[in-house]
Amino acid sequence: MSHKCFISFKTEDSDYKQEIQEMDDLDIIDKSLNDPINSDKEDYIMRKIREDYLNDSTVTICLIGNHSAENSILENQSYIKRELQASLYKNPNGILGIVLPNMYDKIYKGKYTCSECGQEHNFVNINNDTTIREFNYNYYLPLDEDKCAWSESDRYCVLVKWDDFIESPNTYIEKAFNKRNDDIVSKIKVHPD
Fold first, then answer.
1. Confidence band for 139, pLDDT divided at 50, 70 and 90
2. Which of 82, 110, 141, 179 is least surrounded, with the fewest CB atoms within 10 Å of its CB?
3. Where are the alpha helices (DSSP H) in the chain?
4. Does residue 110 come out as left (phi exceeding 0), alpha (psi in the -120 to 50 range) or beta?
């Protein structure tokens, strides 16, 4: 079944957005903004994005590249922040974060042995230095007291490497879509502190 997908991205990553849109086996209804809205008023632009693109979408795809971090002092993150906030507000979209190849080493840090349970866990560096706050909070939702590490069921956002996504894009879009009906929805935050 086709899902209505909105792609949130920084201009520097537009080639990846275009590659997604041109995939032959991708089963989506593309709700992405392809042409700039003719205005310099941010509130008007965001209202148009919400009304014309996000309003009836069901999955928001966030491209995670070198320019999409909360703490990137040289970047204006207001559009991707507000797009994600609108995606999480009321009847939230599923959120799919696609880590672009230039971010693999910054995000995927290997395994570590947990001092609490003694098991190995993957260290995934999702924070304000790699993504915007709206993504990283909803990826690392607060854990129950009896847990020492996150599992897929403890996260609202779905995360995938670009190379894995292009091998099976519909699988990851479906995973993000299905999160909309999980109990975890009750824990998401639109404006995290």
1. very high
2. 110
3. 14-21, 42-49, 78-88, 104-107, 133-139, 162-167, 169-179
4. left
